[in-house]
Amino acid sequence: MKQLITFFTVFFLATTVFAQHGTDAASSEGAKINWLSFEEAYELHQENPKKWVIDISTVWCGWCKRMDQTTFSDSLVIDHVNENFYAVALDGEYKEAITVGDRTYNFVAEGRRGYHELPAELMGGKLSYPTIVFLSDGLKNLSSIPGYKDARSFLQIVEFFEVYDAETNPIKYDDFSKDYVSPYPAPEVEKSESN
What we know:
Elements: H1 2-20, H2 23-29, E1 35-36, H3 38-47, E2 52-57, H4 62-69, H5 75-84, E3 86-91, E4 98-100, E5 103-105, E6 107-108, E7 115-116, H6 117-122, E8 131-135, E9 141-146, H7 151-163, H8 173-179
Parallel strand pairs: 1-3, 2-3
Antiparallel strand pairs: 2-8, 4-5, 6-7, 8-9
Helix pairs in contact: 5-7
């Protein structure tokens, strides 16, 4: 009985702490990342150039869904992405052609599922989901980052690419990280019990 009470107490506290930060605050206000198609972002970019963040995922990817539910629902992530980037959601297995300028990218029926040429090019041919790609305001590929990132890690990466510029501010990520102060509470370190 004591263990059951402890479990419910910990569960309640964890739920309360989680609800006060990020995801619930964003969803209660209805805030979301302003996801665009690649073509929409390209058109907007012609009028007003700025950096891009591209989420490459698939419909079957569990970690992609988890990033949607957690990382991309976090209020701080939403604010930074919407304010500083064109945000593009791109399916790595999209079946329709995508035309960017005078170039058309197509679906390639290969293997069990196939792939789309545009996300494959953005990922440097390494098909891994989820992958986040950052493009400069000149549409140069700054970085392709594979794997799930929680809100804390992702926000640090986003804030790095907000200030990074190969010509005017060629800061290295490691140098940026040394001075970075996260707006999130520090993660709790598990304490080991001594006997």
